[in-house]
Description:
The protein is an alpha+beta fold. Helices cover 33% and strands 20% of the residues. The chain folds into 3 domains: 2-99 and 333-346, Rossmann fold (3-Layer(aba) Sandwich); 127-190, Dna Ligase, domain 1 (2-Layer Sandwich); 196-326, D-amino Acid Aminotransferase, Chain A, domain 1 (2-Layer Sandwich), CATH 3.30.470.20.
Amino acid sequence: MKVGLTYDLKDDYVFQPDDPPDAATELDTEETIAALETAIRASGHRTIRIGNARSLMGAAMEDDLEVDLVFNISEGLEGRSREAQVPAILEALGIPYTGSDAATMALSLDKGMSKKIFRSERVPTPDWFVARSAAEVDEWDVEFPAFVKPVHEGTAKGVTAQSLVHDMRSLRRQVSRITRTYRQAALVEEYLPGREFTTGIIGNGNAQILGTMEVIIADPAEDHIYTGASKAEFEAKVVYKPGREIEAPLRRKVEAVALAAHRALECRDFSRVDIRCDAQGRPCCLEVNPLAGLNPRTSDLAFISKFEGITYEELIERILSEAIGRTRRHGRRSQSSVRVRETAASA
């Protein structure tokens, strides 16, 4: 097959004067794109670099885009639906792609909306409310401690040790920081003091657990919180415990919640679900990542796969196989009306 790659590179991001320092943290590196190309080619396919949503639209308008399938890891740049942009364009063009569709991408990125789905589908999740200003905090009966983060970000953007608040003054300060710095509402969530896990899932109607690992924050300064800093400096600040070392009854409960969350948002092909336990040790879903990071050296999904004896190449092949099988079951346009030129990097 001819497989196109859609992505947003950190090196292409142009910082604006009022951007937070972690504005580009979700975007991918050249290392990730090169690893994906190598893994896809190892499965016998050709790869063609397309790039971000604007590059995709440009190629389409120039009738310069012909691919059998797109492997999509594009995060988008702006707005709460940014992860849905490339899927929506590809759907309009009739081109199949890996991963979840535009509806799921938009819902999952907005944590307030996704938690409404979890609640309606009886997926356990911490209590929450969305505050668009510090003044709105007074309208809610808040139980402390509470946790504050941007409502539509990923990769722990905006999450620091100060995100855990113990009183109204700190809560207002953190909500104000989020709304001012990230120009969006804040999610104020019940704080769960228990253990934290992340679970990888592969598949569609017959979705299955890829594996689970426990996330243990080793740096006391992070106050047991998986912050943006701890993610970036994971080698020094985080210990990842493989699933085989987690008590079997607890692991089964964690994975049952993760699978229910994956299905509730109707994720496709793969996802990674973040779970944290409450004070009674009951697993609750924090969020679903249908566009989980795929860097072979630094991403949680790659760590999970390695713990389960699955190579990076095998992980990518399984994601591709799920997308190909799903496409064949549901059909597609016989041929795209546009073509893609191979870049020098894909030669």
